[in-house]
Design goal:
The protein has ten helices and 18 strands. By secondary structure, it is an alpha/beta fold. It has an eleven-stranded mixed beta sheet with strand order 1-8-2-3-7-4-6-5-9-10-11, with helices on both faces. Strands 16-15-17-14-18 form a five-stranded parallel beta sheet, with helices on both faces. A two-stranded antiparallel sheet has the order 12-13. Helix 1 crosses helix 5. The longest helix is centred in the C-terminal third of the chain and has 17 residues. The N and C termini lie far apart (about 55 Å). The structure holds threonylcarbamoyladenylate (TXA) and magnesium ion. Threonylcarbamoyladenylate binds next to strand 5, strand 6 and strand 10.
């Protein structure tokens, strides 16, 4: 079906108490092999029946995602897990107890029930039990595991609102369940349990500190960018989660970073151009009257709040007609690590350590 022929319907749902008739309608589409975008607590997912290979191929087509990048399978409860995995490592029970339902994805040895399309032909499958009431209701009503990547075109910013999904995938998918802004704002933490030490492949909504409190030592698969350790998940390119506008991530002391932002804004203004700045609340006094488009992602004291606002703030800067975006770093404590990972990927490697 071409984009022009396919109409994408939008159905508003109550995020806390989703209307059963609307969920039933979406579940019917999932069972029929169609594509439904829905809110999870992290970002919107683009869902299809995970056991239907043709439906899963539809996800890759709509997103223009390379087939080598495997998908996360979403379940309603732990009872749905055993048939999908070849083995249940001992940590699963403790992790499930502590973090499910929630923004943690576990990479486990797969069973033959999972189509190759989902796992990109690999020996493992990524699984998670989302906490969002709409996601849970949909999976329950569909009575199927639901494969769902973030509901954006491949390589673009993940969607935290239904309108973001529509902007990227309108005409390419059958239905969007609109449950408002997603509460966590960055994707789930992807944790591999097939490595000798549990390894974070992608930092996300569950912090490394929280995982270590349950598991003991946890490794972070990393590539070094600037001073920070930044995790990379296999099958993802370093240039990922990217706005269209070039973005540079500035690492370094507050004063040095703010001075660099002021210089860049004035230099652009002298040429009749504007830059965009992604900053913290605490930065605003130092940026007063600066000729730049400024977006506040939140407070340095609250990385969770920054994660929630991150993608919407980046989308606003991306739509503001600025020639480039300079983003500050928000540290690596709690969800700060996930924020740094997404900003460094949005920068496509343009990460600069600034000194006075
Ligand atoms: O929060 C989330 O995780 C969202 C919501 C919708 O659940 N989903 C999401 O999916 O972010 P996606 O496809 O955009 O990112 C999934 C990540 C990719 O980096 C992929 O490479 C990795 O998980 N992944 C999936 N299956 C894997 C596997 N078997 N082994 C290693 N990494 C895997
Ligand atoms: Mg994604």
């Amino acid at each position: 079906m071409s984009d022009a022929e396919r109409r994408t319907r939008i159905l508003a749902v109550n995020a806390e108490h989703p209307e059963p008739d609307r969920i039933a309608e979406a579940a019917r589409l999932i069972r029929a092999g169609q594509l439904v975008a829905f809110p999870t607590e992290t970002v919107y997912g683009l869902g299809a029946n995970a056991l239907d290979a043709a439906a899963v191929r539809g996800i890759f087509a709509a997103k223009e995602r390379p087939a080598c990048d495997p998908l996360i399978v979403h379940l309603a409860d732990v009872e749905a897990l055993p048939p999908l995995v070849a083995e249940l490592p001992p940590q699963v029970e403790r992790l499930a107890e502590a973090f499910w339902p929630g923004p943690l994805t576990l990479v486990l040895p797969r069973s033959a029930a999972i189509p190759d399309e989902v796992t990109a032909g690999g020996p493992t499958v990524a699984l998670r039990i989302p906490a969002h009431p709409v996601a849970r209701a949909l999976i329950r009503a569909a009575k199927r595991p639901i494969a769902a990547p973030s509901a954006n075109r491949f390589g673009r910013l993940s969607p935290t609102r239904a309108e973001d999904v529509l902007a990227d995938l309108g005409g390419r998918i059958d239905l969007i369940l609109d449950g408002g802004l997603t509460p966590v704002g960055v994707e789930s933490t992807v944790l591999s349990l097939v490595t000798p030490v549990p390894t974070i492949l992608r930092p996300g909504g569950i912090s490394r500190e929280a995982l270590e409190a349950v598991l003991g030592a946890v490794a972070v698969r990393s590539r070094t960018v600037g001073t920070g350790e930044i995790a990379a998940s296999p099958g993802t390119l370093p240039q990922h989660y990217a706005p269209r506008t070039p973005l540079r991530l500035l690492l370094g002391g507050n004063e040095a970073v703010l001075a660099a932002m002021r210089r860049a804004a004035l230099e652009a203004a002298a040429r009749g151009r504007r830059i965009g700045l992604l900053v913290a609340e605490e930065d605003l006094p130092s940026l007063r009257n600066l000729p730049a488009v400024i977006e506040v992602a939140g407070s340095l004291r609250n990385p969770r709040g920054v994660a929630r606002q991150l993608y919407a703030a980046l989308r606003r800067l991306d739509g503001a007609g600025v020639e480039r975006i300079l983003a500050r770093d928000f540290g690596e404590r709690g969800l700060g690590l996930a924020v740094r990972d997404r900003l460094s990927r949005a920068a496509g490697g343009d990460v600069v350590e600034v000194t006075e």
